[in-house]
Amino acid sequence: LVFQQGDEVWLIGRRNLNGSGDYDLGWDRYAPEVQSLLYELDYWTHLKRCAIWRVDPESLAVTWLTDLPSRGDTCFAGILDDGDGDYTIYNYTNALDGPDLVWVKGQLSPTIINRVTFHLPERISRRAAPRSAAGAPRATRATSRRRTPARPRRSCPRSSFAW
User: Of 13, 65, 66, 146, which one's alpha carbon is 20 to 30 angstroms from that of 126?
Assistant: First the structure.
């Protein structure tokens, strides 16, 4: 998901927590079909996050800014521009208060839609994002209501933070 605020370009996408974050692991010594299978296995067995990235519109370089509250099978985000730098993101994820699942286990587990509101001031790339001790955005409000396939639909869990 790509969006723009002023002259800043942003990307919301899945982050692979395999050390480098790369899908292409540089394992060129294997035949292409074996290499592809090994890359898939590596991807399936690592933790994931839904993250916000800054995109340099000139070079198209992508720089990680922060992770949204997310884990397991995650990051099919939608965004609403609420005006004046305020945004609401809806994101598919495994339960935020449950175990931190590798992606393939997350695929087989219940999911929720999480709602995150945040404020993105102009020229954020010139400042550091505030972070908790664990490196995640600081939440200013959160609820734990969630929806699983076995439960009736409820309102989305909500987290708020500002940079």
Answer: 13
